[in-house]
Structures are given as structure tokens and as C-alpha cells.
Amino acid sequence: MSESAKPHHPSPQGKGEKTHASDFSYVGIDAILEQMRRKAMKQGFELNIMVVGQSGLGKSTLMNTLFKSKVSRKSVQPNPEERIPKTIEIKSISHDIEEKGVRMKLTVIDTPGFGDHINNENCWQPIMKFINDQYETYLQEEININRKKRIPDSRVHCCIYFIPPTGHCLRPLDVEFMRRLSKVVNIVPVIAKADTLTLEERDFFKQTIREELRANGIDVYPQKEFDEDADDRMINDKIREMIPFAVVGSDQEYQVNGKRILGRKTKWGTIEVENIGHCEFAYLRDLLIRTHMQNIKDITGSIHYETYRVRRLNESNAHFKSQPSDQPAVQPKANGQPEVKPSAPQANGVAAKHEVMSHEM
Amino acid sequence: MASSDVARMPEKAVRPLGLAGHVGFDSLPDQLVNKSICQGFCFNILCIGETGIGKSTLMDTLFNTNFENFESSHFEPQVKLRAQTYDLQESNVRLRLTVVNTVGFGDQMNKQESYQPVVDYIDKQFESYLQEELKIKRSLHNYHDSRVHACLYFISPSGHSLKSLDLVTMKKLDSKVNIIPVIAKADTISKSELHKFKIKIMSELVSNGVQIYQFPLDDETVAKVNTTMNGLLPFAVVGSTEEVSVGNKMVKARQYPWGVVQVENESHCDFVKLREMLICVNMEDLREQTHTRHYELYRRCKLEEMGFQDTNPECKPVSLQQTYEAKRQEFLVELQKREDEMRQMFVQRVKEKESELKDAERELQSRFEQLKRLHADEKATLEDKRRNLDDDLSSFGKRRAAAQLLQAQSLTANGKKDKDRKNSGFM
């Protein structure tokens, strides 16, 4: 019943923001931008960042530096124990922060124990599981009949992966982790404690890392395939030339040239965190927060989450098809706990195992 | 799964935190707005009103374009809806506007079913969105949202009260769409009548429990103006695309011998208020209400109707997928059963037919035997007869021979040789 669109342009003359415009060609459609902004400010934003890396690489400090407040777990826990946990733990802390009327619920997800053990095989699994669990929660809420007005978004938007500054190349652990996780979440690799590398070493290291990423087919954020148009590609190409960012974090201020700035004071000089000549923290901050935050959230929501959803829905289909007589009631999870709901795939690494199990049943 | 378990620290209550410097996420709303600009917006208006009441003209005036509508006849047998989509652009904002008009509303003799096509149309849009949402491979951000965001209900300027058709239709629609009633052709009502008319309309709506769209009051920047406007509902509008020169300007107006009704003059009609409320202030809220209230209601009803539920009798959450699969299993089992039944029936029938045919065959066989016997009997009888006949013939022959011999003997005994020769010549 609908006819094709016909382009009709009202003369776009109206510049006056408030209405009662006496120029009759002004309709006021562009006022919707203001309405959207108002709605966004009222609703607030949510951001979930995960930090992954060996202990001692400065993850918590970097988070504190990024958000200029004590958002990391160490700062929140009253008596931080410096032990390495026996198993990889996933700990998330949420804060409400506000800037110029924009409210944001920031969740920092920490992964103490990653890469710290002697045998680090499969250390990505709990992390994969956590990420998939968040997708699962969101999916469950979305397919509910009585669902909330605004589904609380606990999906991990961005995962910052800390590469130790060896100066040589990526370690097998790094490659494995990034390879598996780049398919489910946006990964932003950073070179931690970059003040141990000279500028030449840093450039060489970055180049090696980029080559290795390319060789292994690892697509880190910003992913090439999700560039929307030529402008996007241009901007993102520049960023892709610079990743991984070599960062230094600090939450202590020092006096330099009469100004108080964040930095690290050593005997041979003060490293200014926000000085582009010293380290690339400012680029990271701009990428993550000032320019690409919405894009990161969009890619998580519309691409990673949808991929998970497709896989999950197809999987339940296949699962039910292979068991025509069984009630979809009990299906043992990989770690042996019976569950009422069909269990989510554990991790990419064990997806095959899961399917084998279901066929054996 | 190797070495690791997942231990989760109980999530602390979210605490507010102060920032020690400028972080920069205040640009988030801008990032969001930029993305929306790239994507474009979508808005769908449904206009319900009698033929000739000025719907198309008002749309033209509102969006300052010529939507190329043509007048409809008054003799439509049924209410139909006509939807047209347009791409508008103002500064850097692209809007895909769909205007749906009713055709033939209020023209029929029997108006009992007039509202039905409208309700069906709205439901159909919800349904197609729901289908898209339930798909496995879906692309919601590319999806052209055709759900009706605002419904302008045109009230005839009778000056007395609402018609019963109006009440019935609005009552059916109020839980499905945001209704904004407008008084059409407001230049036929005087100011005092208008005031009374508006009060009458609002009180009738309230007493009949019709929930029209209220402009939202929760955002303080617009709460004040929205409250005022809420009190001025329904807006009395006049539409016109013709321009008349007033003073030294060309304005949109309607020219009468007794004066000029200026569309954008606030003391003449409420057109500017309508435009401001509909487009400039609350467009986003209309879209949001449609999605979060009306669409969710539709979705809930539809899914419950299909038999899904959120929790099963043991109070454990049941996923949609699970219920769907359970239903599918049920259906498949049912199908299997039916198939088996049919197969049984088929086998049965085949057996029956087979036995029937066997019987027939046997019968045929027995008849054949019978006939054969009959035939043999007949043959035997005939044989007998023939034998008898042969016997008779032979005995007759014998007797004749004997008689002849006797005669010959008797003749020779009498001695009449001439008679003998004559007799032998005769025989």
C-alpha cells in the first residue's frame, strides 16, 4: 500500500533554534537532534570495560588515569591483597560518574590471575565464559515476554589487553588470547609500562606486533570490516597505523613547568602521561572516550551480540532437533552441573566439546 | 575446562564518584547524535478523519511540501488506508516520513466496522517489527520502522460534541498508538464556541476512558511548555498551502471575503502549537512511547496468545526458545501420530480391498467351475442322446435290413420274379 519515496526538500532555511519562526519554510525537523540529546542526558550511559593482563602491568593505574578517579578494584577494596589468586577471577566494580551533566555508569572488569600461573593453558576460558554469560543475560532479558523498559547492558564493550613491554614480539599467550577473543569482543591492545622502551624500540615493537596480528588474522578494534564509509576508513586507518598504543599510567600529580600534571617522577626525568611526545596515553583516551565510545558500544551491540545470538539460537535448534524425545529440561553443563535452561556454549575453545557431548547424549 | 573457575565478587552497590579532571565523555551525547544523523530518522503519522476534512492539506502545511495527494471519492465501500513515504531533509537531518491517510472513513452507511482496517494496519506494522525482532539473523538497525508513531484524529468542527464514531474509534486505538486529537477546519468556529467545544471534547474523552497522548512532563526543560500545551488540547488547526500577501509578507493563509485566516498566526488557530509539539519538542518522545509502551504491549499480548510464558509452573524461568521448541516438539509428535494413523488407515483399506477382491475372485472361480460342470453335464446328456440316437438308428437299420430280408425271402417264396425285379428297381 505504500508508494515509493519521493524526495521533496523544504527549503532548509530555518536556522533559528526555537520555533514561532516567522520564516514559513522552517518545519523544525532538526529539533529532533536536541530531543535526542536531552533524552540521552536524562537516561545516562553505560560503559563496561574489561582489563586483561598479567599482574603488575599497571592495569588499575591506567584505569584510574583514564577516568581521573579511583575506579579500579584496588582503590575500592579496603585492604588490597597482593596475592595472585589460584584461579582466574573476574571482578567487576561499578561507578556512577558525571561530567557536565552527562551521567555514566562505568563498570571496570578486572581479571586478576590471568597469565600469572605456571601453566596458562586455557586461561582465556573463564574470560570467554564471562563475556558470553553477559551476552546470555542480555539475550534472556530480551526474549522475555515482560521485559524491562531499558534492558540493563552488562555486555563487555571493550577489552583492553596489556602487552608486556618486552620489545621483541608477541608471546604465544598473547596471540592465543587475542585470536580467540577478537571474535567476541572489541579488543584494544596496549603496550603497558611503555616508559621502559626507547622511541626506536617502541616503533619496532609496534611494527612487529602489527605484523604478527596481521599474520594471525587477529582483527582488533577498529576492525577493518566494520568501517562504514570512506571518512570512517580514513580516520580508522590512521588509528590502525598507531595501534597498539604505548601507554604509561599514573595517578600522581607533579609540578612541571609550573603546571600540575599527571606523571611518573624518576631520577632521570618526569614522564608526562598526557604528553604525546612521551607516551600515547592521550591517543588511547581520545579513541576510547572522546571519539569512538559510541562506535565501540554499537559494534558490541549490533555485531558481536548479534553473532552470539545467531549462534545461540541456531544451537538450541540443533540441540532440540537431535533430541526429539527428550524434554529440554536437563542438560549437564561442561562442569557437571545440571541446569534447566539449555546451557550457553562455554567458550569458543570448548564449543566443539559441547556439541560432541550433545550428540553423545 | 582447565585450571580455572570463575569467582565473582559480589557486585558492590554502584557508588557515585567524583572526577579529578576532564575526562571527556561529555562528548558522548554528541557521538550519539552524530551516529543518528548518519543513520537518518524515521517518523510515521497516521491521519484519521472523514473525507474532505483536511488531512492531506494539514500534512502539506505541516511539512511544508506538496505530498501530491489526490482527492478521494465519497463512495468508498470500505475504509482503506493509503500510506506514502517521503524523504525529507532539513539542514543535516534526514527524515523518512510516512503519512498514512484513511480513505473513506465515515462515508459508509454502516460505520460499525470502520475502525477495523485502522486497527489492522497498526497491528500489521507491529507484527512485522516483531517478526524482524524474532528472526535469527536480523538487522534491526537497518530495518525501516513502519510502526505508527503518532495518530492525528481529526474531529469535525460541529461545535457540539464528539460523534459516536469518534469515540468508538479512539477507544479502540488508545492502547495501540499515541492519539493526538485535532479539531479540523477550525476557521468555522468562533473563539467562544471553540473554548466550549474543547472543554466538551476533553470531558467526553475522560468520561469515556479514552487515553490520548499527553505531552511528557518529566524533563524540566520542556515540562513547562508541555503542561501548558496539555491544557490546550485538542488543537484547533487550519491548513493551507496557498499563500496570501498580508502586510508586506506572503503568508500561508485562507482568503475569505470577510478576511484572511493566517495559518501561522497563533491568535487565529493552533497550527503553530501543533507543529511545535508534534515535531520540534516531542517527536522523539512519541517514537519512544510507541516502542516502549504500545509495541511492548502488543508483543506481550501476542506472545502470550501464542502460548509462551515467562515462568513455568515450577517457577523457573522458561526461555522463549524453550517454549517454542517444546511447542514444536508437540507439533512434531502430533504430526508423527497423524502420519501413523493415516498409514494405518491406508494399510487397513488396502487389506479390505484385497480381501474384497479375493472374495470376488473366489466367487468368479466357483461360477466358472459351476459353468464348467453344467457344460460337462450338458455334454454328457448330449452324448447320451446321441448314443441313444445312434442305437436307435442302428437298431432301426437292423430292423429294416431284417424286414427287407424278410420281404425278399417272402417274394422269392411266392415266385413272382417280375414283381421282384420291379420291387428291386423301386427300392
From TrEMBL, chain A:
Q: Name one GO molecular function term.
A: GTP binding
List keywords of the entry alphabetically.
Answer: Cell cycle, Cell division, Cytoplasm, Cytoskeleton, GTP-binding, Nucleotide-binding
Q: Name one Pfam family in it.
A: Septin
Q: Which residues form a coiled coil?
A: none
Region (Disordered) residue spans = 1-21, 319-361
Gene3D superfamilies reported for this sequence: P-loop containing nucleotide triphosphate hydrolases (3.40.50.300)
Transmembrane intervals: none
Might you report a single GO cellular component term?
cytoskeleton
Q: Which CDD domains match?
A: CDC_Septin
Composition bias of kind Basic and acidic residues appears in 352-361
Primary site of residence: cytoplasm
GO-annotated biological processes: cell division
Q: Where in the cell is it found?
A: Cytoplasm, Cytoskeleton
- Record domain Septin-type G: where: 43-315
Alphabetized PROSITE patterns for the sequence: G_SEPTIN
UniProt similarity note: Belongs to the TRAFAC class TrmE-Era-EngA-EngB-Septin-like GTPase superfamily. Septin GTPase family.
Q: What is this protein called?
A: Septin
From TrEMBL, chain B:
Q: Boundaries of each Septin-type G domain copy?
A: 39-305
InterPro entries the UniProt entry points to? G_SEPTIN_dom, P-loop_NTPase, Septin
PROSITE patterns in the record, alphabetically?
A: G_SEPTIN
Per UniProt, the ranges with Basic and acidic residues bias are 415-427
Give the residues annotated as coiled coil.
Answer: 343-388
The record's keywords, sorted A to Z, are: Coiled coil, GTP-binding, Nucleotide-binding
Q: Locate the region Disordered.
A: 407-427
Please give the family membership noted in the entry. Answer: Belongs to the TRAFAC class TrmE-Era-EngA-EngB-Septin-like GTPase superfamily. Septin GTPase family.
Q: What is this protein called?
A: Septin
Q: What is the scientific name of the source organism? A: Pogonophryne albipinna
